[in-house]
Predict the 3D structure of the following.
Amino acid sequence: MSIVSSMSMNIRVFGGVFFLITLYVWQVSQPQYTQVTILDVGQGSGAYIKVDNGFEILVDVGETNKTLRNLSRFRPWWDRHIDLIITSHSDKDHTGMVPKILRRFRVGGYIESPKPGTDGLYKSIHKELEAQDIPLIYPEHIDLSQDVFITFLHPQNKFAQEYSDNDASLVFVLQVRGTRFLFMGDASSRVENELIRRYGKQLDVDVLIVGHHGSKTSTSQVFLDITTPEYGVISAGAENTYGHPHQSVIKRLEEHGVVVLRTDTLGNVQFKVYENGEFDIIVR
């Protein structure tokens, strides 16, 4: 080997090491945050959570490829692992993309409403879960990191069969340091009233993921009095045939001083919650 070629190789190696060190220093110097993104999935529901330790969760997944297109904007294209999928209930606009996602990604665990679905989609999901040996779990509480955790509020497993599919939706609080997100699925005011009786002021949150896409059957006056959210995020499709979100719900939210963020008009709505508890909101 000539002296010139040897020097060239040393320079290339040094350059590569310098790049990796620079990249590492840049990553370490970036502010650490947990991101909670309500995805624009059209008429349906979908959310992506990435904890600052790298743990990733999908909460509902819509029913079209729009879910995957928008998800790809927030995570590397080559990453084929999702730690956890949570589906609030078995409606297609919440679970339609689950089979495709289970086939495309390595999924660590699956959480669903304790009230089972009855259609072919539900059976297809469970067939895929079994084929891939993905554990089906029903926790009451999940610690995601030191300051990030999920607490499930509804339904209690033994009573799930007493509810309609919508009212059997999983309802949970995601707490990221001091910021609290309340996910309501498609639960109606019946469930809201039960939650108020059971938890009272413990329902106070910063961000409300508005129930049932802003349907008039949810987000009652008394529920807003108790939860006192600063922001209300509504997942709905543009010009959908259901009339979501209903104008009466928008009015109630605004009368309570809630800043309304809608996926049908804004696209993806992302909250970045930093180590000091402050957060930014990005819409894109």
In short: The chain is about 30% helix and 25% strand.
